[in-house]
Design a protein that fits this description.
About 35% of the residues lie in helices and about 20% in strands. The chain is built from 15 helices and 15 strands. It binds S-adenosyl-L-homocysteine (SAH).
Amino acid sequence: MAFCMTPLETLIHDEIARDGPMRLDRYMEFCLAHPEHGYYPTRDPLGAAGDFVTAPEVSQIFGELIGLWLAQVWVDQGRPAPVRWIELGPGRGTLAADAARALRQAAPDFLAAAELVLVETSPALRARQAERLSDLAPRWADTVDDALSGAPAFLVANEFFDALPIRQFRRVAETPGPGLPAWTERHVALVEGALTWRDLPGAPPEPLAARLAEPAEGAVLEACPAGEAVAAAIGRALAERGTGAALLIDYGYDDAERRAAGGRDTFQAARRHEYADPLAHPGEADLTAHVDFDALARAARPANAWGAVGQGSFLRALGAEPRAAQLARANPARAEAVAAGLHRLTHPAEMGRLFKAMALSPPNAPPPPGLTAAPKAPEGAG
Ligand code: SAH
């Protein structure tokens, strides 16, 4: 209804009225990234007063261990200098601030060799990062390609890929007509003035369709072309320079979980820590989908992919438990809070299993800490 529409809703209605039903990835991009009215550019969504909480906001241990991970990878590669410490979507800058504190103690050489480069579209969050990270003198790059176009990259991205726009395909029982695929692609249409889902004939890209040998009616496949493009840029930069690494942490399925789910709709909206209707408040709810680590690993070739492993086992391998014990000893009044944070980050029923860590590294680089399984076979439907 026109009288209660947000400015973004008006823009979306106008574009649908002009061009017809809007693909889901376009809708997500509008809602999340519109420079004036989009979700990220207009707010700080994190924390208790916001819409969701991320791992670095749960416990300082997260950022500290990631800082030490970066330094260890850097040492294992012979301490190259200069390098870029890049973070994609740094939020409030908490991860980088915690990492830097650990690095000052354990690996000041890494800090001396590294220039901190942040990729962030939201002016609101850029301001928070500037404040929080002023002692590190960060620089902001407008695109991932810009960030990668210099010294070797030591890159971190936490909950960045889950916010990139997806396309979504559904298996239908019969082809809707001669020559048409037995798949539809999700769009947003306008019915009597209201945004409504509309599934139009459209087939998933080949490698995606091969995921499900015999897709059942109703099976859902999701593709994130923007995420794959970022992974491809990272993989290219790592392989070209032969130095550097990337650590991608996000929530999503591995192969076995995906097979068990058999092709599921993972698109969701969150608002004030509750699930919301993704069509109800365009630009005012966080929209995310499960990250497809296998697709990112494939896109990043010829870089090697390590993992993905559960966030719980990754953090434990890096020493989360002794670090928590040390923090509790140093400040007994906070012991309970420290334990609760560790539990939330690592327990399988909390963020320990659904959240996963995957590293990318140049073809001949040694295994990164915490992810020492053999590199993922580059081929295969995944
Ligand atoms: N990494 C932080 C924040 C996660 S929220 C944490 O763990 O707390 C997602 C972050 O990615 C936000 O900073 C958001 O503004 C940023 N972001 C989302 N889409 C982006 C894009 N296309 N380019 C750059 N940054 C983006």
